[in-house]
Every structure is written in structure tokens, then in C-alpha cells.
Amino acid sequence: MKYAILIAVCSVMLAPIADAHDKRSEVECEKTKQKIKKLESRMRQGYTRAQGEKWNDQLRALRAIRSKQCR
């Protein structure tokens, strides 16, 4: 019985922390998605080979970050 009360109290106390983390994760996810959209938009315009290689690397890295952040 004491164990159940302790778990209930802890879960109530930690709930705001979990919510804040979830909201922060959502914000980071949206920022990453916006960076991807901006880069994709830039890539639809003309660019040099060197720029294309650099942007493809950046896009690949951003997509890897997105796959970890946005679940």
C-alpha cells in the first residue's frame, strides 16, 4: 500500500517535467522540419556542384536528426 502511494505521488510530481520535455521536443522537431523545408526550397533553385554536395550533406544530417527527434 505504501509503495502504491509513493508511486502515485512521484508520478504526479514528475508529470509537469515530462510535459515540458515533450513540448520542448515538439519545438525542436518543428525547427528541424523548417530547416529541411528551407534547404529543400533553396535546392529547387540553381546552384553549383559544390553547393549541391554541401546542401545534400546538410539535408542528410537534418533528416537523421528529424528521425530521432520527431517520433
How many separate helices? 2
Uncertain stretches: none
Radius of gyration: 20 Å
Q: What is the end-to-end distance?
A: 36 Å
User: Could you say which overall geometry the principal axes of the C-alpha atoms support?
Assistant: elongated
Number of strands: 0
- Main pleated sheet: none
Query: Mean pLDDT, nearest integer?
Result: 83
* Content of β-strand: under 5%
Order of helices and strands: HH
Structural class of the helices, strands and pairings?
mainly alpha
Helix content: over 70%
Description of the structure:
With 71 residues, this protein is an all-alpha fold. It has a domain at 25-71. The protein is 89% helix and 0% strand. The chain has two helices and no strands. Helix 1 runs antiparallel to helix 2 (49-69). The longest helix is centred in the first third of the chain and has 42 residues, at 2-43. It is elongated. The two termini are 36 Å apart.
Which features characterize this protein?
71 residues; mainly alpha
A few lines on this structure:
This protein has 71 residues and is mostly helical. The protein is built from two helices and no strands. The model has no long low-confidence stretch (mean pLDDT 83).
Q: Layout of helices and strands, plus pairs?
A:
Layout (H helix, E strand, L loop, with lengths): L1 H42 L5 H21 L2
